[in-house]
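Sharing a chain and its predicted structure for anyone who wants a worked example. Both blocks are below, sequence first, tokens second.
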Amino acid sequence: MKYSLPFSFLRSLVFLLGTKSLYSLLASVALQNRYVKYFEKLKIFYNCSLPPRKVLTIKRFIIYSIHGDGSDLKVQIIMQHNIVFSCSSCKNCMIFHDIEIDKAIINLVNCPELYDDVKVKFLSKALPAYYDDCPFFFWFHTSFIQYNRLYLPRHELDNLHKPKTWKIYPTEFAVEVQFDEISQSSTATSTQLSRVSLVGQKDAVGSP
């Protein structure tokens, strides 16, 4: 039995709880340790039910020990198999390089609302591409983000857990993600306003 990971991964784990298929699935997704930890939280705090949805936007990425200024990086944010946002030094973000601390700060402009499983890919023509045609990437589930922050050391970034990448990415290499949380009431209000606007446009088109 195969599943598209990590889309619906938590749901799959819930359904497979206590079966041999569960342990087979876990063994085949060593890179998804974060989701195994999510599942542990599901068992402890949510009685093996999916947690309440949390809607977030990404304010910025901070890349530590980058050994460069980050201007060569392109970021893609993927949700439900679609690229919902992309940015580079000349599009949708502002990149700052702190030489003293050796970190790059990527401030995003107009990041869309994100929820459930989200994938972030970093691309660069100046860096070797590995699995998924990129230097490194990672997944997270918005409902498990705490204090609007996610910090991922090198061994928790997909592709960079492999020793062959360590000559380029030092032990101190890490990615931090800072978020803003969108309240459910704000999201609902925004949706209602959009619907009212669409109805008004239709009435205007139909009026003499």
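Comments welcome. Residues 155 and 162 are 8 Å apart (CA to CA).
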